[in-house]
Amino acid sequence: MNVRLLLSLSGLLLLALPLSLLTGRVWFNPFDPHVNHVSTILMDLRLPRALLAVVLGAGLGTAGAAMQGYLRNPLADPGLFGVAPAAALGAVLSFWTGYAAAPFTLPIFALAGGAGGMALLALLAGRSGGIALFTLAGLMISSLAGALTSLVISLSPSPFAVSEIVTWLMGALSDRTWGDVELAMPLTALGIGALLLTGRSLDAMTLGESAARSLGVDLWRLQVWLIVGVGLTVGAGVAVAGVIGFVGLVVPHLVRPFTDRRPSSLMVPSALAGALLLLVADCLCRVMPLKGGELRLGIGLALLGAPFFLHLLLRMRRGAI
Q: Rounded to two decimals, what is the model's pTM?
Protein backbone atom coordinates (compact mmCIF):
# COMPACT_ATOMS: atom_id res chain seq x y z
CA MET A 1 0.00 0.00 0.00
CA ASN A 2 1.31 3.44 -0.91
CA VAL A 3 1.96 5.03 2.50
CA ARG A 4 2.87 8.37 0.95
CA LEU A 5 -0.49 8.49 -0.83
CA LEU A 6 -2.36 7.71 2.39
CA LEU A 7 -0.46 10.38 4.29
CA SER A 8 -1.07 12.95 1.54
CA LEU A 9 -4.79 12.25 1.41
CA SER A 10 -5.04 12.29 5.20
CA GLY A 11 -3.20 15.63 5.31
CA LEU A 12 -5.48 17.17 2.69
CA LEU A 13 -8.49 15.90 4.59
CA LEU A 14 -7.25 17.47 7.81
CA LEU A 15 -6.78 20.78 5.97
CA ALA A 16 -10.21 20.64 4.33
CA LEU A 17 -12.08 19.86 7.54
CA PRO A 18 -11.50 23.23 9.30
CA LEU A 19 -12.07 25.00 5.97
CA SER A 20 -15.46 23.32 5.80
CA LEU A 21 -16.32 24.58 9.27
CA LEU A 22 -15.66 28.19 8.27
CA THR A 23 -17.30 28.00 4.84
CA GLY A 24 -20.86 29.07 4.21
CA ARG A 25 -23.04 31.73 2.71
CA VAL A 26 -21.57 33.88 5.45
CA TRP A 27 -17.89 33.36 6.24
CA PHE A 28 -16.90 34.07 9.79
CA ASN A 29 -13.79 34.25 11.89
CA PRO A 30 -14.19 32.01 14.96
CA PHE A 31 -11.70 34.18 16.86
CA ASP A 32 -13.67 37.36 16.20
CA PRO A 33 -15.30 38.32 19.52
CA HIS A 34 -18.06 40.22 17.69
CA VAL A 35 -19.43 37.08 16.02
CA ASN A 36 -22.38 35.73 17.98
CA HIS A 37 -23.21 32.10 18.59
CA VAL A 38 -19.92 30.82 17.14
CA SER A 39 -19.93 27.62 19.18
CA THR A 40 -23.56 26.90 18.27
CA ILE A 41 -22.90 27.38 14.56
CA LEU A 42 -19.81 25.21 14.66
CA MET A 43 -21.02 22.41 16.90
CA ASP A 44 -24.66 22.11 15.88
CA LEU A 45 -24.60 23.05 12.20
CA ARG A 46 -21.27 22.86 10.46
CA LEU A 47 -19.42 20.11 12.35
CA PRO A 48 -22.11 17.42 11.88
CA ARG A 49 -22.41 18.42 8.24
CA ALA A 50 -18.66 18.13 7.69
CA LEU A 51 -18.46 14.79 9.49
CA LEU A 52 -21.36 13.49 7.46
CA ALA A 53 -19.56 14.47 4.24
CA VAL A 54 -16.44 12.59 5.40
CA VAL A 55 -18.39 9.49 6.43
CA LEU A 56 -20.56 9.27 3.32
CA GLY A 57 -17.69 10.10 0.96
CA ALA A 58 -15.51 7.38 2.51
CA GLY A 59 -18.28 4.83 2.12
CA LEU A 60 -19.06 5.73 -1.49
CA GLY A 61 -15.37 5.78 -2.46
CA THR A 62 -14.75 2.34 -0.96
CA ALA A 63 -17.89 0.92 -2.56
CA GLY A 64 -16.85 2.26 -5.97
CA ALA A 65 -13.38 0.71 -5.72
CA ALA A 66 -14.84 -2.65 -4.70
CA MET A 67 -17.43 -2.59 -7.48
CA GLN A 68 -14.87 -1.78 -10.17
CA GLY A 69 -12.58 -4.51 -8.83
CA TYR A 70 -15.31 -7.12 -8.75
CA LEU A 71 -16.82 -6.35 -12.14
CA ARG A 72 -13.41 -5.57 -13.70
CA ASN A 73 -15.10 -2.62 -15.31
CA PRO A 74 -13.74 0.93 -14.85
CA LEU A 75 -17.23 2.35 -15.45
CA ALA A 76 -18.84 0.37 -12.64
CA ASP A 77 -20.59 2.36 -9.94
CA PRO A 78 -22.38 1.39 -6.70
CA GLY A 79 -25.61 2.44 -8.39
CA LEU A 80 -25.36 -0.68 -10.56
CA PHE A 81 -26.31 -2.80 -7.55
CA GLY A 82 -29.71 -1.16 -7.43
CA VAL A 83 -29.35 -0.52 -3.70
CA ALA A 84 -29.38 3.27 -3.99
CA PRO A 85 -32.55 3.40 -6.14
CA ALA A 86 -34.23 0.91 -3.77
CA ALA A 87 -33.29 3.05 -0.76
CA ALA A 88 -34.56 6.15 -2.58
CA LEU A 89 -37.85 4.37 -3.25
CA GLY A 90 -38.21 3.62 0.45
CA ALA A 91 -37.59 7.26 1.33
CA VAL A 92 -40.06 8.47 -1.30
CA LEU A 93 -42.70 6.14 0.15
CA SER A 94 -42.18 7.81 3.52
CA PHE A 95 -43.01 11.18 1.92
CA TRP A 96 -45.98 9.75 0.05
CA THR A 97 -47.50 8.16 3.12
CA GLY A 98 -46.82 11.22 5.26
CA TYR A 99 -44.65 9.34 7.76
CA ALA A 100 -41.60 11.42 6.80
CA ALA A 101 -42.77 14.13 9.22
CA ALA A 102 -42.06 11.86 12.21
CA PRO A 103 -38.49 11.77 13.58
CA PHE A 104 -36.15 9.21 12.00
CA THR A 105 -38.96 7.73 9.90
CA LEU A 106 -37.48 8.84 6.59
CA PRO A 107 -34.06 7.16 7.16
CA ILE A 108 -35.77 4.05 8.50
CA PHE A 109 -37.88 3.78 5.33
CA ALA A 110 -34.77 4.38 3.21
CA LEU A 111 -32.77 1.72 5.05
CA ALA A 112 -35.68 -0.69 4.71
CA GLY A 113 -35.78 0.00 0.97
CA GLY A 114 -32.04 -0.55 0.69
CA ALA A 115 -32.27 -3.79 2.66
CA GLY A 116 -35.09 -4.96 0.40
CA GLY A 117 -32.94 -4.20 -2.65
CA MET A 118 -30.03 -6.15 -1.14
CA ALA A 119 -32.22 -9.16 -0.37
CA LEU A 120 -33.73 -9.15 -3.86
CA LEU A 121 -30.28 -8.90 -5.42
CA ALA A 122 -29.00 -11.87 -3.41
CA LEU A 123 -32.12 -13.86 -4.32
CA LEU A 124 -31.85 -13.13 -8.05
CA ALA A 125 -28.10 -13.67 -8.28
CA GLY A 126 -28.38 -17.07 -6.61
CA ARG A 127 -25.59 -19.18 -5.17
CA SER A 128 -24.11 -20.10 -8.54
CA GLY A 129 -24.62 -16.78 -10.27
CA GLY A 130 -21.67 -15.26 -12.06
CA ILE A 131 -20.75 -11.63 -12.66
CA ALA A 132 -23.06 -11.27 -15.68
CA LEU A 133 -26.15 -12.49 -13.82
CA PHE A 134 -25.21 -10.40 -10.79
CA THR A 135 -24.88 -7.25 -12.91
CA LEU A 136 -28.12 -7.86 -14.79
CA ALA A 137 -29.97 -8.46 -11.52
CA GLY A 138 -28.64 -5.15 -10.17
CA LEU A 139 -29.69 -3.32 -13.33
CA MET A 140 -33.17 -4.83 -13.16
CA ILE A 141 -33.60 -3.76 -9.52
CA SER A 142 -32.34 -0.30 -10.36
CA SER A 143 -34.78 0.06 -13.27
CA LEU A 144 -37.71 -1.32 -11.25
CA ALA A 145 -36.99 0.93 -8.27
CA GLY A 146 -36.66 3.96 -10.57
CA ALA A 147 -39.97 3.18 -12.26
CA LEU A 148 -41.76 2.70 -8.93
CA THR A 149 -40.28 5.95 -7.63
CA SER A 150 -41.65 7.80 -10.67
CA LEU A 151 -45.03 6.13 -10.11
CA VAL A 152 -45.11 7.21 -6.46
CA ILE A 153 -44.22 10.77 -7.44
CA SER A 154 -47.00 10.84 -10.04
CA LEU A 155 -49.48 9.60 -7.40
CA SER A 156 -48.41 12.15 -4.80
CA PRO A 157 -51.37 13.77 -3.07
CA SER A 158 -50.23 17.39 -3.49
CA PRO A 159 -47.75 19.59 -5.37
CA PHE A 160 -46.08 20.27 -2.03
CA ALA A 161 -45.36 16.56 -1.56
CA VAL A 162 -43.94 16.36 -5.10
CA SER A 163 -41.69 19.32 -4.36
CA GLU A 164 -40.46 17.72 -1.13
CA ILE A 165 -39.71 14.42 -2.85
CA VAL A 166 -37.91 15.94 -5.83
CA THR A 167 -35.85 18.24 -3.60
CA TRP A 168 -34.85 15.37 -1.36
CA LEU A 169 -33.88 13.15 -4.30
CA MET A 170 -31.39 15.81 -5.45
CA GLY A 171 -29.21 14.98 -2.43
CA ALA A 172 -27.84 17.47 0.09
CA LEU A 173 -26.12 17.75 3.47
CA SER A 174 -27.79 20.96 4.56
CA ASP A 175 -29.69 21.04 7.86
CA ARG A 176 -28.30 17.67 8.94
CA THR A 177 -27.89 17.01 12.64
CA TRP A 178 -25.86 14.85 15.02
CA GLY A 179 -28.69 12.33 14.84
CA ASP A 180 -27.96 11.81 11.14
CA VAL A 181 -24.25 11.35 11.93
CA GLU A 182 -25.04 8.81 14.65
CA LEU A 183 -27.24 6.91 12.22
CA ALA A 184 -24.90 6.93 9.20
CA MET A 185 -21.49 6.52 10.87
CA PRO A 186 -21.83 2.99 12.36
CA LEU A 187 -23.62 1.61 9.31
CA THR A 188 -21.03 3.06 6.94
CA ALA A 189 -18.17 1.80 9.12
CA LEU A 190 -19.64 -1.70 9.07
CA GLY A 191 -20.06 -1.48 5.29
CA ILE A 192 -16.46 -0.37 4.76
CA GLY A 193 -15.27 -3.17 7.04
CA ALA A 194 -17.23 -5.73 5.01
CA LEU A 195 -15.77 -4.41 1.76
CA LEU A 196 -12.20 -4.45 3.10
CA LEU A 197 -12.64 -8.15 3.88
CA THR A 198 -13.09 -8.81 0.15
CA GLY A 199 -9.68 -7.37 -0.81
CA ARG A 200 -7.77 -10.61 -1.46
CA SER A 201 -10.71 -12.19 -3.27
CA LEU A 202 -11.02 -9.13 -5.50
CA ASP A 203 -7.32 -9.34 -6.28
CA ALA A 204 -7.86 -12.91 -7.44
CA MET A 205 -10.87 -11.81 -9.53
CA THR A 206 -8.56 -9.67 -11.69
CA LEU A 207 -7.36 -13.00 -13.19
CA GLY A 208 -10.91 -13.95 -14.16
CA GLU A 209 -13.73 -15.92 -12.56
CA SER A 210 -12.33 -19.34 -13.38
CA ALA A 211 -8.86 -18.51 -12.13
CA ALA A 212 -10.33 -17.01 -8.95
CA ARG A 213 -12.32 -20.20 -8.31
CA SER A 214 -9.19 -22.29 -8.84
CA LEU A 215 -7.42 -20.13 -6.25
CA GLY A 216 -10.10 -20.97 -3.72
CA VAL A 217 -12.32 -17.89 -3.97
CA ASP A 218 -15.93 -18.63 -3.01
CA LEU A 219 -17.88 -16.40 -5.39
CA TRP A 220 -21.12 -16.74 -3.45
CA ARG A 221 -19.45 -15.61 -0.22
CA LEU A 222 -17.74 -12.77 -2.06
CA GLN A 223 -21.06 -11.60 -3.48
CA VAL A 224 -22.66 -11.69 -0.04
CA TRP A 225 -19.91 -9.53 1.45
CA LEU A 226 -20.18 -7.10 -1.46
CA ILE A 227 -23.96 -6.88 -1.16
CA VAL A 228 -23.70 -6.25 2.58
CA GLY A 229 -20.85 -3.74 2.21
CA VAL A 230 -22.30 -1.76 -0.67
CA GLY A 231 -25.78 -1.97 0.79
CA LEU A 232 -24.72 -0.53 4.13
CA THR A 233 -22.50 2.23 2.73
CA VAL A 234 -24.87 3.33 -0.03
CA GLY A 235 -28.06 2.73 1.94
CA ALA A 236 -26.82 4.75 4.91
CA GLY A 237 -25.89 7.62 2.60
CA VAL A 238 -29.25 7.68 0.85
CA ALA A 239 -31.04 7.46 4.18
CA VAL A 240 -29.55 10.68 5.54
CA ALA A 241 -28.59 12.72 2.47
CA GLY A 242 -30.63 11.57 -0.52
CA VAL A 243 -29.14 10.35 -3.78
CA ILE A 244 -25.49 11.39 -4.28
CA GLY A 245 -23.90 9.88 -7.36
CA PHE A 246 -20.58 9.75 -9.22
CA VAL A 247 -18.35 9.63 -6.11
CA GLY A 248 -17.90 5.87 -6.43
CA LEU A 249 -17.22 6.21 -10.15
CA VAL A 250 -14.77 9.11 -10.09
CA VAL A 251 -12.66 8.51 -6.98
CA PRO A 252 -11.05 5.12 -7.87
CA HIS A 253 -9.84 6.59 -11.17
CA LEU A 254 -8.22 9.53 -9.40
CA VAL A 255 -6.20 7.38 -6.99
CA ARG A 256 -5.55 4.28 -9.13
CA PRO A 257 -2.45 5.72 -10.91
CA PHE A 258 -0.80 6.16 -7.49
CA THR A 259 -1.32 2.51 -6.45
CA ASP A 260 -0.26 -0.87 -7.79
CA ARG A 261 -3.80 -1.08 -9.27
CA ARG A 262 -4.81 -4.09 -7.16
CA PRO A 263 -8.35 -3.71 -5.73
CA SER A 264 -7.09 -4.41 -2.22
CA SER A 265 -4.61 -1.52 -2.51
CA LEU A 266 -7.22 0.82 -3.90
CA MET A 267 -9.99 0.71 -1.30
CA VAL A 268 -8.42 2.59 1.61
CA PRO A 269 -7.07 5.43 -0.59
CA SER A 270 -10.48 5.58 -2.28
CA ALA A 271 -12.14 5.95 1.12
CA LEU A 272 -9.90 8.93 1.98
CA ALA A 273 -10.24 10.47 -1.48
CA GLY A 274 -14.02 10.01 -1.42
CA ALA A 275 -14.23 11.76 1.93
CA LEU A 276 -12.07 14.61 0.62
CA LEU A 277 -14.07 14.94 -2.61
CA LEU A 278 -17.44 15.08 -0.87
CA LEU A 279 -16.16 17.54 1.74
CA VAL A 280 -14.72 19.91 -0.88
CA ALA A 281 -17.76 19.55 -3.14
CA ASP A 282 -20.06 20.42 -0.24
CA CYS A 283 -17.99 23.54 0.49
CA LEU A 284 -18.25 24.63 -3.15
CA CYS A 285 -22.00 24.06 -3.16
CA ARG A 286 -22.35 26.32 -0.12
CA VAL A 287 -20.52 29.27 -1.66
CA MET A 288 -22.13 29.12 -5.12
CA PRO A 289 -23.89 32.46 -5.72
CA LEU A 290 -27.43 31.20 -6.31
CA LYS A 291 -30.52 33.28 -5.56
CA GLY A 292 -32.68 30.31 -4.53
CA GLY A 293 -30.27 29.04 -1.86
CA GLU A 294 -27.25 26.76 -2.06
CA LEU A 295 -26.63 24.33 -4.89
CA ARG A 296 -27.82 20.79 -4.08
CA LEU A 297 -24.86 18.48 -3.57
CA GLY A 298 -26.26 15.76 -5.83
CA ILE A 299 -26.57 18.27 -8.69
CA GLY A 300 -23.09 19.65 -8.12
CA LEU A 301 -21.48 16.20 -8.22
CA ALA A 302 -23.49 15.28 -11.31
CA LEU A 303 -22.17 18.40 -13.04
CA LEU A 304 -18.62 17.30 -12.16
CA GLY A 305 -19.14 13.59 -12.72
CA ALA A 306 -20.88 13.62 -16.10
CA PRO A 307 -17.92 15.23 -17.98
CA PHE A 308 -15.56 12.86 -16.16
CA PHE A 309 -17.69 9.92 -17.29
CA LEU A 310 -17.54 11.21 -20.88
CA HIS A 311 -13.76 11.50 -20.55
CA LEU A 312 -13.59 7.85 -19.45
CA LEU A 313 -15.73 6.78 -22.38
CA LEU A 314 -13.45 8.58 -24.84
CA ARG A 315 -10.37 7.00 -23.23
CA MET A 316 -11.98 3.56 -23.49
CA ARG A 317 -12.75 4.25 -27.14
CA ARG A 318 -9.06 4.96 -27.73
CA GLY A 319 -8.12 1.85 -25.76
CA ALA A 320 -6.29 3.90 -23.13
CA ILE A 321 -8.03 2.06 -20.27
A: 0.90
